[in-house]
Design goal:
The strands form three sheets. Strands 3, 4, 5, 6, 7, 14 and 15 form a seven-stranded mixed sheet that branches. The longest helix has 14 residues. The protein is of the alpha/beta class and 329 residues long.
Amino acid sequence: MQIPSSMTVVEISTYGGPEVLKPTTAPVPDPGPGQILIRIAYAGVNRPDALQRAGNYAPPADASPLPGLEASGHVAAVGDGVTRWSVGDAVTALLPGGGYAEYAVTDATHALPVPDGMSMDRAAALCETFFTVWTNVFMRGGLQAGEKFLVHGGSSGIGTTAIQLAKLHEARVFATAGSAEKCAACDRLGAEATFNYHETDFVEAMKAEGGADLILDMVGGSYIPRNLDALANDGRLVQIAFLEGPVVELNMTQIMTRRLTITGSTLRPQSQAAKAAIARALESEVWPHLASGAIGPVMDSAFELADAAKAHTRMEGSTHIGKIMLKVT
C-alpha cells in the first residue's frame, strides 16, 4: 500500500465550541512496535471528543493530540512484533486519539476484524461504545439474566448499544430518553419500557418495578441521588460520564443499609493490556452476534471529515439517535 508523507486531519485549533475544529495537514504517523497504521475509512464522533475540544479531556502523553477514539479502515503498515494483522486487512479499532485523520496508529491488540457483511461506516461505530458498555455493564456492573437494568440516554450511541447487549443477555431493560421519537427507538431495540424524562419520574417508575438492579448513568449531577433511590436493595450504579457535573451532596446511609454499590470507569486512561482484554472478550462474546445481524450499531448521520464541526454541532444538539460518523476516505 502506497503511504503518503502527509495527510488531511482535523485539529483542535484552540479550546472552544465546534467551530474550533479546523482541517489542516500533518505528517502520517509511523507505527511503533506492536502497533498498526490504519488507512481510515470512517471515524466515530463521541462525547469525549467534544470534551477534549473544550479542554476538559486531555489525551495521554503518548497519544495523538487529534480527536477521534474509534475508526474503521484497512491496515496500511504494521510495526515490529505484529503477527495477527497484514497490510490490507479490514479492521475496526479503538484508538488512543487521532481518528479525525486519513491515517492513525493504534495498538494491534485494540483492533478487531470487521464483522462479516458489515459496511465500513457501521464498523467504525463499534469500538468506543461496545468497549465502554461491555466494561461497565458486564465486567464492572455484573449484569445477569433476569435482572432489571436501567440505562439513561437510551437513544445515544452508548444507550442503543447497552439496550441491545443487555437484551441479548436476557436482562429486563428500561431506558430514559428525551422525546417520543427517542423513546420509540429504545423500545424497538428491546427496552421493556422507556421513560420520557420530561414527563415521567424514572425513580417512581423503577420503584414500581421493584427497583433497578443495575443503572448505567452518563448524566451525573442531580441524577446521582435519584439513581440511588431508584435502585433495588443490593443494586449497583455504574457512572461513565457527568454531563450534569461530577459534584453532588449525598447521604451515604442508604448505601450501607441497602447494600448499594457505586462504581464506574472511563476507557481512555486504562492500560494497553486492559483494553486488549476487553477486545478479546468482545471478539469472543459479541462479534458473532454482530456478524449474524442479531445486534448492530444504530446509525444517525455521516459528515465529511472537513465538516467535523457540523458533526459536533449535531451531537451537542442532542437530537440524534445512535451514532454520528465522519467519512474520511
